[in-house]
Amino acid sequence: MTRISGKYLAKRIVVSYLTLLVIMSLLFVLLRSMPGSFITSMISSGMTNEQIQQIRETWGLNEPLWRQYIDFMINYQTGNFGRSPTYNAPVADLMIRRMPRTLVLFGATFLIGFIIGPLVGMYLGWWRGSKKDKSIFSTSLLLYSMPSFWISWLFIWVFNYELGWLPSAYMFTQFPEFQWTAFTVMRDVLYHIALPIMSLTFIGWVGSMLIMRPTMNQVTDEGYVFLAHAKGLSERTVMIKHAARNALIPVATGAVVGLAFLIDGSIIIENVFNWPGMGQIIVTSVLNRDFPVAQATFFLLAVLVVIMRLVTDVVYTYLDPRIKFGEGE
Amino acid sequence: MTLLEVNDLSIRYAVDDGSAVHASDDVNFSVEPGETYGLVGESGCGKTTLAKSLVHLLDDNGYIEDGEVWFETTLPQWADENGDPKQSVIDDPDKPVRADGKTDLAQLNSKQIRDIRWRDIAIIPQSAMNALNPVYKVGDQIVEAILRHEPETTAEEAHERARDLLERVGIEPDRADDYAHQFSGGMKQRAVIAMAMACGPDLLIADEPTTALDVIIQDRILEELEALQEEFGVSILVISHDISVMAEICDRMAVMYGGKVMESGRTEEIFDATANPYTLGLKNSFPTITSKDQDLVSIPGTPPTLRDPDEGCRFRERCPFAVEECHAAHPPMYDVATADAEGRAVESTDRRAHTTACYRIDELEQIRTDAINESTWTDQTIESR
Ligand SMILES: Nc1ncnc2c1ncn2[C@@H]1O[C@H](COP(=O)(O)OP(=O)(O)OP(=O)(O)O)[C@@H](O)[C@H]1O
Ligand SMILES: [Mg+2]
């Protein structure tokens, strides 16, 4: 049952690729338009002219601009992100270690948020105007207006400081007394990731709920929902199989927007919880003026968003059979 | 043996300002097995409301104020091995079951009525075109209905039946795997008809089955319904504002106005011995009914809003024959045959007789003559509003 044509998919992939080329070019321009030269940070006052020349040489700054641009574009596409002056290591290695950590945090939050949000939205939309709807809805709006760092501190205060249940920083126990096996490591990571995920999802689900609730409510007036009732299906079946299934379609679009907010949120959360991922390194690298790292982090986050866009597009075609991308063209 | 017997059914809608819309008021009618019964009347007179209320499908603010809906069926949990109600159930005053095997649907709770829906009473909604779920295959939606009411059926059997049903209404069986957006309007309509027949209901409610369709498709749909009726012996409750469509397909009908039944009886009786000013007016306004030498006249004025209606005949404000008496109370149903034969007004509660709600039943001959004149309708000055 493939509804998506290979041709459409190929086209979407090409468009995604072009998007990334544009993003790369923007990064290039941004970096060159910083005040002074971006190697200023690597130059300390005691350096000799030769040393400075050598740095300029390694960064290709003596080449003409167009040549630099082409080199940059080729390097980036081959995964050559340069060397980090602060970590004194290839940026790509840093990224490979950090990316999965962020993906875990990110993926889990995304998944939990997009399960809870539509579920709550489904119930509220179905029973719209009821007392429960009103109270839950206004509470969630209140949550939505809270800054995520504030929630994190609150959670740290309650679950770490007061109750002592969960660790408030890092990804692993710093001086473990247990054997390192796959199981204990996994358990240890779960133990450490719990509080960051809780902080992120505590408000993260509200966005998708806000989309689901009104669409769910609209869908209850549709002819097919009436017919589903008329067929004698149970209230539950009508709500989930007929109403919610249709109301979910716009939520898929909202997922992309939600993603952008999630990136925002996880940068803050990673820093609050000392989670050694991309969100943390993006801040430290900017503060340290470690431009190769900052540049690569920005780029990879952009790649993530572009990929997610592509995925939602495909999901969309499966959710809504009326959309047949690229067929008959 | 009657299939459906509706007694004094009143339905209201609660509205924001605290008033209530009396969408159906003391309605009585009955449907026999295998017959086609029509509900006809202008837009907003309560036809859809009446039909939906039979299986509790009203909008959230709608409710049955009063009345009974006796239907020839027994809930599975109340039935003996022959499908008749157990004696203990009939004797139980808390269970709305009569000795003649009928159950009062109005008294069932929401779980019980879901067993009646589709299995006993299937409904083709007014907007049947939008009744198919866009995200599921048409065939699967028919299968869903079958499996809901016949859980012992296997999925393959149900699929086979769905294909047969589609073929039965003139749709390629292979189209069962298509989605609604791949169907034309007429095909969607027929697919819903096929779906309605899926569980072999005893009553099929068809709400404006032809309104959104062009004339040729209209005829095909009507033929389809008649053929199904012949084949399955299903009774059809058909709803339309188009009295000419009704003349073609109904055995009996009720003419409704403002939530009230104004005239009811066999179709020939209603057309040949029309006995209510509203029916006369309605006939005047349909080209296919009026005879050639007669002008097309529509009834002046608009239907009343049904919010907390005042006393008096519902139609009096637009009725050229209204007299003093009409303002006091809505008229009861009078027997037309007696009036025609003896010129007397005799009240009748016989659902099968030709009856009309009009105080001036004893002057029928005069009213019928005057109603053909265009001037009767156009010149009227209505004094008391
Ligand atoms: N949910 C509702 N709340 C309030 N009033 C309603 C509601 N639904 C219907 N009504 C009113 O009840 C009356 C009967 O409506 P209904 O839909 O049964 O009429 P109908 O005869 O089927 O008309 P049509 O031919 O336009 O379908 C109308 O006056 C309508 O405005
Ligand atoms: Mg209607």
TrEMBL record, chain B:
Give start and end of each ABC transporter domain.
Answer: 4-283
Q: Does the keyword Disulfide bond apply?
A: no
A GO biological-process term: peptide transport
Task: Note the topology in the membrane.
Answer: Peripheral membrane protein
PROSITE patterns according to UniProt: ABC_TRANSPORTER_1 (PS00211), ABC_TRANSPORTER_2 (PS50893)
* InterPro entries given in the database record: AAA+_ATPase, ABC_Ni/Peptide_Import, ABC_transporter-like_ATP-bd, ABC_transporter-like_CS, Oligopep_ABC_C, P-loop_NTPase
Give the residue ranges for region: Disordered: 78-98
An annotated GO cellular component: plasma membrane
* UniProt GO molecular function: ATP binding; ATP hydrolysis activity
Keyword annotations from UniProtKB, A to Z = ATP-binding, Cell membrane, Membrane, Nucleotide-binding, Transport
Subcellular compartments: Cell membrane
Q: Is Protein biosynthesis there in the keyword field?
A: no
Q: Which NCBIfam families match?
A: oligo_HPY
Q: What protein name is recorded for this chain?
A: ATP-binding cassette domain-containing protein
